[in-house]
């Protein structure tokens, strides 16, 4: 745990429902720290479709590469095995051997084909994974599997997180209920491509695997790929989703199901930002009036990733000049005399200069809140985008300076 719980954390871990066709277990294996729950196992019933989205890092980890190779259209029993404390990234052939041995051991313990065992690892980069510690606990994990163990699983995957993250939705399809539940970890090294975190989502709906894969990727671009804490993309980003089909309800192509899934994913994405290392402010960057959606995204992310913008927010300083700077450096088309900037409802700048109605006193008061909205209108077209980030405080330095000690 990274010190005190984030001031932006939800009041409590949500009551996640049982998802028929999934069982969970978690255990302390001593991967890096003694007496810390650090491994979780999720067992998926026969007929489960598995889809995933992964980091685009050129130095992505051995578990990520293994999962990428295994994602396919088959539906059968499957398992997710996740450890924290060690990312098994940049570990060469030793990392690949660790993945192979873990998958083989999961297969032996559960009877699930090793080709349907998906592993993830998060933690320190460049140190060999002591996979034998994980293997030694697989019998215990398999024996402890139970349908309501998802909160323990959420805690097992935490690294510098200060709280476990969960979200759920229930969707009605043809008069029948379909449940969706997800957990995530993420606090630092958070930036798009695909947002630097681990996420596991489960539904009892039946869903065509290729269609679900396309849907997951599409929603990821509007959720996890729109958040940033520090602009650093991880080697280990993994989003895995399983549709068990146990409800008997086919959600393929259903708009309500897609909307429910997006709400779960956006909720988890926002929780990751709210747990940004050292965060005290949750910040939404809204961009409109761009020449294109792509240009709007450039402006949103340039603003969200700017250390100068983020430190001004931490200091509760309405330094709108830093937003002007971020727009200018973004690479998007911009015109000084068409640009307008708002902090919340406060018009800060317009027509190439500070607004005549601008009040520094009101803006400073607004910046003291925990929820900050920065609205940027480029005045050029219909392109729009949104990004979510947090402030940058000295606590971020403290956490990362001491991360390996």
Would you give an account of this structure?
This protein has 405 residues and is an alpha+beta fold. It has 2 domains: 22-275, L-amino peptidase D-ALA esterase/amidase; 282-402, Roll (Ubiquitin-like (UB roll)), CATH 3.10.20.340. 31% of the residues lie in helices and 25% in strands. It has helices at 62-70, 92-110, 131-135, 138-144, 150-156, 209-222, 255-274, 293-305, 307-314, 320-329, 360-366, 394-401; strands spanning 22-27, 39-44, 49-54, 78-86, 117-124, 165-173, 176-185, 198-203, 238-243, 282-290, 340-343, 346-350, 353-354, 371-377, 383-390. The chain has a 6-stranded mixed sheet. A 5-stranded mixed sheet has the order 3-9-8-7-6, with helices on both faces. A 4-stranded mixed sheet has the order 1-2-4-5, sandwiched between helices. Helix 8 (293-305) crosses helix 10. The chain is globular, with a radius of gyration of 22 Å. The mean pLDDT is 93. GO terms for molecular function: L-glutamate N-acetyltransferase activity; L-glutamate N-acetyltransferase activity, acting on acetyl-L-ornithine as donor. Its EC number is 2.3.1.35, 2.3.1.1.
Per DSSP, the total helix count is 12
Q: How many beta-strand segments? A: 15
First-to-last CA distance: 13 Å
As for the number of domains, it is 2
Class based on secondary structure composition and strand pairing: alpha+beta
Shape: globular
């Amino acid at each position: 745990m990274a010190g005190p719980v984030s001031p932006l954390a939800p009041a409590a871990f949500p009551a996640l429902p049982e998802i028929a066709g999934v069982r969970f277990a978690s255990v302390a294996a001593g991967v890096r720290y003694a007496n810390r729950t650090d491994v979780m196992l999720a067992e998926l019933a026969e007929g489960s479709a598995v889809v995933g989205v992964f980091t685009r890092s050129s130095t992505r980890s051995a578990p990520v590469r293994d999962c990428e190779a295994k994602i396919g259209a088959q539906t059968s029993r499957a398992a997710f095995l996740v450890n924290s404390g060690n990312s098994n990234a940049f570990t060469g052939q030793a990392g690949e051997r660790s993945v192979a041995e873990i998958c083989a051991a999961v297969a032996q313990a559960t009877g699930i084909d090793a080709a349907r065992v998906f592993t993830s690892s998060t933690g320190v980069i460049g140190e060999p994974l002591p996979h034998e510690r994980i293997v030694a606990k697989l019998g215990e994990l398999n024996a402890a599997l139970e349908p309501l163990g998802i909160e323990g699983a959420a805690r097992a995957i935490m690294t510098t997180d200060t709280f476990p993250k969960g979200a759920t939705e229930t969707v009605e399809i043809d008069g029948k209920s379909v449940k969706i539940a997800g957990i995530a970890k993420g606090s630092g090294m958070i930036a798009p491509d695909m947002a630097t975190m681990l996420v596991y989502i489960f539904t009892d709906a039946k869903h065509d695997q290729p269609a679900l894969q396309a849907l997951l990727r599409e929603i990821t671009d509007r959720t996890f790929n729109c958040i940033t804490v520090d602009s650093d993309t991880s080697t280990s980003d993994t989003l895995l989703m399983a549709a068990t089909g146990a409800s008997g309800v086919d959600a393929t192509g259903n708009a309500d199901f897609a909307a429910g899934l997006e709400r779960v994913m956006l909720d988890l994405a926002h929780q990751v930002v709210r747990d940004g290392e050292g965060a005290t402010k949750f910040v939404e960057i809204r961009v409109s009036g761009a020449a294109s959606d792509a240009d709007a995204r450039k402006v949103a992310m340039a603003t969200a990733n700017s250390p100068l913008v983020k430190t001004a927010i931490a200091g509760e300083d309405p330094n709108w000049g830093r937003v002007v700077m971020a727009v200018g450096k973004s690479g998007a088309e911009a015109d000084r005399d068409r640009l307008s900037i708002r902090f919340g409802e406060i018009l800060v700048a317009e027509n190439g200069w500070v607004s005549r109605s601008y009040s520094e006193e009101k803006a400073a008061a607004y910046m003291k809140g925990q929820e900050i909205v920065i609205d940027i209108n480029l005045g050029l077209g219909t392109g729009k985008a949104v990004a979510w980030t947090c402030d940058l405080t000295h606590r971020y330095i403290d956490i990362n300076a001491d991360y390996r000690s």
